Amino acid sequence: MKTKLVVQSGVFAVLVFVAAIRCPATEAPEDICKLLGGRSDRGFAGRPGNLYAEVGNSERLIYMAEDLSVKSSLMKGSIIEWRPDYVQLQPSPLVGPTGQALEGISAQKYCWIGPRDTLVIEHALRNSGSAEQTVRFTFDLRGIAEVKPMDGRLVFEISGGYPQTVLPRFFGALAATHPVTFSNGLCQMDVAVSAGQSVECVVSLGFGPVLAEAEQAAAACRADARKESTSYWNQMLTTGIPRFACSDPYLEKLYYFRWYSLLTKLNIGGYGRWSKPLAREGTVGFNSLITYSGSPSTIDLRWLRSPDWAYGNVQSFYENLHQGKLANHIYPDHLDGDGANRAPGLKGSPIDFPYHNFLVKALADIYALHPDKEKLRQLWPALQQATSLYESELDADHDGLYETYPWSNITGQEWGARFLYFHPFDKLLRYDRKWRPKNDADAAQTADNIERSVVLRPGLQMARTAAEMSKQVEADVHYRQETLDENSYAYVDMTAMAAIAEILGDAKASRKWQASAEKTRKMILAKLWDSKTGFFYDRDGVTKEWSLVKTPTSFYPFWAGIGTKEHLPIFKHLFNLAEFWTPYPLPTVSMDYPKLAELRKLGWTYWNWNNWPMTTCHVVDAEARAAKDLDPSLTPGAAELLMKYTQVHFIDLDLKRPCVSEHFDPITGRPNAPDLDYAHSYFIDLLMRHVAGIEASPLKDSIRIHPLNLGLTRFGVPNARVKGHDLGVCWQDSQLTVTVDGKVAARQNTLAPLTLRLRNPRKKQL
Fold it and tell me: Where are the domains of the chain?
């Protein structure tokens, strides 16, 4: 039966029934592992599961959120090539059974994470000599208890580095394609290689809380195991996600690299508070579920063809509330409210505030692609409880503008100049709430540093004695600031709450949340916009004075859909070379900040210089939305900003070296931590909505196709999963073609928006 579609383009609506076509623009590379490989500066190995590894010269195994105590020299060696499916290492010199050097025999060594939490190491041996030779491999197993042989395998217990309150015991098993013996802390394995022949020698280490399962995982070891890894990753990066191809190599490659990076953060879980599938914030660091990165990860994950990971990520947050609020960090065995985010609540006693996030919006965004009413129903009580924090603790004067609390940590942008404007002690305290000047000389020096390096509110006088400065610091414990990022997040979350309530048939709750969202929207436009400078500013929670410091968060109202045509002059600041338009935008404070040079000399640059993808992705989104919905003349700037955001991910613009760093230098583009793979921002969602142009609503069964004109000669996504259908978008030979379930639904010769109303096969869930 053919799918029936209503297609709207401009004022016209037609029914379309067209045969399927082939679109070359959607034909992404078959070997994604090869596309991403060919580099030697990475040593991370992973796949969705619970086990990850760093191999090379700093070897370690990561299980869920901790570093396992077990290590092995099998993981060591200089890195020759990194790929998603394996890391090739330089093998140790080959020796025979008596330790003699061998001639005419060569080896290649590979490490990767295999199925069911296994670490797999392969030596591919080649004997070019005229006689059989035997290679003896000797390697260690450190950080384990007694090793025992069992059914041709070695089994052992891990001594530490796992959540012991959730997993009382943890085991490992070693299996290999050739017999392994263990003596005096060392393993030995002899491998005979006939003349002129090749042999693959594979060792598999399986891990888990149940010994039998670890044994079974290790026992699956086979000589051609590396083929499984390559096949797994190429399949995951072609059929598990929407395939993508385009004429710009940076966009195409970063799309697949960001997917790889995100997929290696996925924990299958199943234990303790990690009972659902979820995405950690980092790989080599930040190995926990963290609220600040939860929203970006979720809106990227929603584009997986299966919604399980995206829904599981959100469930993991709302099923683990900390004192009725979102926890800052969720580990398998405990919650962390984060003492750095502890501050006086409105009722007087200190509470742990969660990081700013837009998780409710992210949940509604999942539903827009993968409707599941039962998931919303299950989460609804926790959503209401956690979101009520805005009203109960973050709006002291009940005006609809929500405040951050002292030291601004819950913004995730601590020590920013916009906070220093009113309360300049943030950086000095370094999370230490007990800091006070040691003496009058210390107070005077502190005052000098601040006055020389920080733009302060006019009339703010710095104390110069220890006693008076201590009073100023004490007063800062109670300050609150009405910030643009928090209020933009509040608006989108409350709008999402209203939508979810409507889906669940709770009209009263829908009206309540929509009224709250509308109150915040009006206050942002009425109280935080300065028409003279054409800019949005934070303001002090008590005095209501603007914080006259320009930062990227001032563009967030357009990200949230709040900004109007009246406020479009703000984008002149974005593209001003003297403000935000650096070679690698955006700096986290405007380049014309009057004391920027002194601020940098003092070292207060954490959120006062660097290009943080977390803020930049919001501004890319904001500019793209403004260009598509409010002013098409903004399109060239929006396109260039998206491309610059893409290119900063490549070290020295080297197409072979994409990375996801915590932050980048806005002038040089250099990353602070190129191997961190930090899930603190989103990119996949930007590409799907603004390059492919796929936009879906949780309240409508229609979708809008509106690609941003990036000047690409071709781009295509053939298999995005949207509302139970396979949706394809193709731009080729100046023609836009949209397919649904393999059938052409619409064609046009421009990138103008068009709307498709899908007859959802799962309509009952809507």
Answer: 5-28+692-765, 40-236
Taking Cα atoms as reference points, which of 498, 543, 552 lies closest to residue 520? 498
C-alpha distance from residue 412 to each of 553, 680, 684 (Å)? 12, 10, 22
Q: Is the pLDDT of residue 762 over 70?
A: no
Q: CB atoms < 10 A from the CB of 115, how many? A: 16
> What rounded mean pLDDT belongs to the chain?
92
SS3 state of residue 126: strand
**Structure-token pair, residue 20:** 């399927």
Report the Cα 459 to chain-centroid distance in Å: 41
Q: For 659-701, how does the pLDDT look when each residue is reduced to its tens digit (9 = 90+)? A: 999 999 999 999 999 888 999 999 999 999 999 999 999 999 9
Give residue 5's pLDDT: 41
CA-wise closest residue to 252 among 687, 599, 633: 687
* Number of other CB atoms surrounding residue 195 within 10 Å: 13
The helix or strand, by DSSP H or E, that contains position 242, with its residue range, turns out to be none
For the 40-236 domain, the top CATH level (class) is mainly beta
DSSP secondary structure of 327-380 = -SEE-SS-EE--GGGEEE-TTSSEEEPPPP--HHHHHHHHHHHS--HHHHHHHH
For 622, residues 6+ apart whose C-beta sits below 8 A from its C-beta are 555, 556, 557, 558, 559, 563
- Cα radius of gyration rounded to whole Å, the chain: 28
Mention every residue, 6+ apart, whose C-beta is less than 8 A from residue 459. none
SS3 7: strand
3-state secondary structure of 387: helix
Element (H, E) at 157: strand 153-157
Q: Return the beta strands (E) in 168-223 as ranges.
A: 171-176, 180-183, 186-193, 198-208
Return d(Cα 221, Cα 202) in angstroms, integer: 7
What letter does residue 40 receive in the DSSP assignment? S
Q: Which H or E run contains 689?
A: none
Beta strands in 214-274 (DSSP E): 245-246, 266-267
User: Which region, left, alpha or beta, applies to residue 398 given φ > 0 means left and ψ of -120 to 50 means alpha?
Assistant: left
Confidence of residue 760 (pLDDT cuts 50, 70, 90): low
Q: Specify the amino acid at residue 213.
A: E
- Verdict on whether the full-model pTM lies above 0.70: yes
Helix (H, G, I), strand (E, B) or coil at 708: coil
* Residue type for position 341: N
Q: What's the Cα-to-Cα distance from 662 to each of 286, 294, 625, rounded to whole Å?
A: 11, 15, 25
CA neighbor of 589 nearest in space, from 417, 449, 331, 412: 417
Contact 86, 112 (CB under 8 A): yes
Q: 235: which residues sit within 8 A by CB, 6+ positions away?
A: none
Residue 38: which region, alpha, beta or left (left: phi > 0; alpha: psi -120 to 50)?
left
Per the CB < 8 A criterion, the answer to whether 317 and 309 are in contact is no
Query: How remote is the C-alpha of 133 from its chain's centroid?
Result: 49
Nearest to 42 by CA among 89, 74, 109: 89
Please enumerate in sequence order all residues whose Cβ is within 8 A of that of 131, keeping only pairs 6 or more positions apart, or say none.
195
**536 vs 574: CA distance, rounded Å:** 12
Looking at the chain, the number of H-run helices and the number of E-run strands are 21, 37
Q: Which two tokens stand for residue 653?
A: 């613009």
Could you write out the DSSP letters of every residue in 432-482? -TT---SSHHHHHHHHHHHHHH----TTPPPP-SHHHHHHHHHHHTT--EE
Measuring CA to CA, which residue among 264, 255, 257 is closest to residue 112?
Answer: 264
Which pair of tokens denotes residue 81?
């090539």
Q: For residue 385, what are its two tokens?
A: 């409880």
What are residue 714's phi and psi, to 5 degrees?
-155, 150
Tokens of 207: 């891990």
Q: How many CB atoms lie within 10 A of CB 362?
A: 28
d(CA 391, CA 515) in angstroms, rounded, equals: 13
Distance CA 276, CA 719 (A): 26
